[in-house]
Design goal:
Strand order of the largest sheet: 4-3-5
Oligomer: single chain
Radius of gyration: 18 Å
CATH superfamily of the largest domain: Winged helix-like DNA-binding domain superfamily/Winged helix DNA-binding domain
Bound molecules: zinc ion
Helix content: 40-55%
Structural class: alpha+beta
Largest sheet: 3 strands, mixed
Amino acid sequence: MNISRGEILERIRKVGGHVTEQRVAVMEYLASVKSHPTAKEIYDALQSRGIKISRASVFNVLNFLTKHGLAREIKTADESHYDAYVDFHPHFICRVCGKVYDLDVSYAGFEYGDLPHKVEQIDLVVTGVCQECLRDQGSTSRTLSKN
Ligand SMILES: [Zn+2]
Ligand SMILES: [Zn+2]
């Protein structure tokens, strides 16, 4: 998913935020990848692009973005991952490598029944072993069974 720079500025303004270089840089990076990076990965990526931003600023910007619904936070066992794709979509988390994938699932028929609460956000996380890790495990077990 790619969001233009103009669209990013617009989204930040819409939630009443100041448009700062750092907010735009983090948001732009986040919107350009599908890997659901951690704060550290975002920091490293921005550094390697020559963008001057401190680790603390990356955290501050991520807090701002998630608080205002411009990014989503996906918590795994030991880390938080971030996603600029904020429309409702579930995630698949691999318990072996820790990678986070978007899941394309239809929600027709997803009903709450009589719910006394106001739903604002749904986080659906599916865990398991991803395709890549399954492939690795497969080759490992084949090697082992030969011995
Ligand atoms: Zn995996
Ligand atoms: Zn996602």
